[in-house]
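Self-study notes.
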Amino acid sequence: MLQSGVIEPRYVKIMLNKIAEEQPYIMLADGVIIAHAGVDDGALDTGMALLRLPYKIAFADYMQADIIIVLATHNPQKHLKALAQLNEFLEFYDGGNVIRRAQDESALINEITRHI
């Protein structure tokens, strides 16, 4: 998102600081969390990025995740449709496991677009 101009460098720094201090992430599905900073923290557009880890890591001493979705938006309303589609994909199409099984980025994009 940084390379594509969706966020400024400060967004990453603020998000990481908030994760360490305030823990602003939400478990969307088993092993899937979403992390973000605020709309005024350097978001230039709306976007999502996905990180798939080889194994689950602990967050906040009670959650474990191997999929981290980063959300950025410059408008508090603009991202709501994408967030609803993501939630539907995770809940109704076993999206977490679809993400885990994807062999590469292209396969993952095809699977996600097929379901939403």
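Second protein, same conventions, sequence then structure:
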Amino acid sequence: QVEFQYSLVKRSGQLQINATDTSAAFWGEKVFKLLGYADEFKVEEGKLRSDLSFIIQPDGLKLDYTKLVFTDSRWKVARLPYPVENFNADLTISSTGIEVRRLKTQYNQGQVSLNGRLLTVSSTLDLNLYATSLQLADWTSLLPELKIGELSGAVDLNLKIKGKISKPHLQGEIRMDGGSLTIPGLKAPLKALRVLAKISGEDLNFSYLEGRMEEAPFFIKGTISGFKDPKLNLNLAVKHFQPD
């Protein structure tokens, strides 16, 4: 459905294009090319409902906004090694940014839920992220702030993401059941981890971190401040550990 309004006196108008239950792959390609994201995102399958609104000006068309509702779609994201599947989302893209009213999807056996805003004018974020069973290594290309030393494994996340797009501030909770962590100054990596930690910017506070160092069980509480040049304030208890 196409709606067209134009004033000869003002030499301006509006063009609206509405599409219902169309191919997400076909229209997704058109929309992301229009928005300049064709190299970052590709929609491979699923359904899409879209409303595109353009402002007609003397020098041509300008995108006012586009509302997109994806259902059971499958995406390829350039910086993720696995496809994003069962992608269901309701979002609006405009000249001021992106509003995510609802986003739920599956990725590599994990679940992701997201809502909030990304403001392009001020280059700021205000997002809420909830995820389960995410492999940290897959997501550090999108959120380098999740690269916490050499921590690897599947995690559950409950985070608020704010601040500048170039340097987001993460605040919330990280849980892990199984994984590994290399800490500067320790002779061996920590394995078979169970972790509950609070993150606030570059401060990571462990409510508990337990697992095994070589064959010795251990328990850690405390804080790591700064991920590039970390300052450690940790209490470590290890049983049956033989030092060099």
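Instructor comment on the second fold: The chain has two helices and 15 strands.
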